[in-house]
UniProtKB/TrEMBL annotation:
<protein>
    <submittedName>
        <fullName>Uncharacterized protein</fullName>
    </submittedName>
</protein>
<keyword id="KW-0812">Transmembrane</keyword>
<feature type="transmembrane region" description="Helical">
    <location>
        <begin position="46"/>
        <end position="64"/>
    </location>
</feature>
<keyword id="KW-0472">Membrane</keyword>
<comment type="similarity">
    <text>Belongs to the SLC29A/ENT transporter (TC 2.A.57) family.</text>
</comment>
<dbReference type="GO" id="GO:0005886">
    <property type="term" value="C:plasma membrane"/>
</dbReference>
<dbReference type="InterPro" id="IPR002259">
    <property type="entry name" value="Eqnu_transpt"/>
</dbReference>
<dbReference type="GO" id="GO:0005337">
    <property type="term" value="F:nucleoside transmembrane transporter activity"/>
</dbReference>
<keyword id="KW-0813">Transport</keyword>
<keyword id="KW-1133">Transmembrane helix</keyword>
<feature type="transmembrane region" description="Helical">
    <location>
        <begin position="17"/>
        <end position="34"/>
    </location>
</feature>
Amino acid sequence: MAILAYNESKIDTRKRILAGFILFFASTLSLLLLDLGTSGKGGIGPFLSIWAIVACFGVAGAHVEGGMVGDLSFMCPKFIQSYIAGQAAAGALTSALRLLTKAIFEKSHDGLRKGVSMLCL
């Protein structure tokens, strides 16, 4: 974040947003491949890999959200409000779907893993 804030005037915002979306895609793909490769088994290796992937999600979110809000700030203020409201609605929908999958796979073996896999696909 400090690097992005310091070099703000030199970084093209659209390239920053695109880099964030590419990082989102790569992180999601690597998370799915990690799950398929380890078959859901634990250990220190998969734990550290998931930790690194979650950190990549945070960096990607900073790139996309910061760039989008920055671009929208030059436009109508209603656009920023709509963008933030859309993010809130997406978070609420994701939480509702997660609760639904927990209820569906409650009594099944490997239910937590199946529910998360269902959300990712």
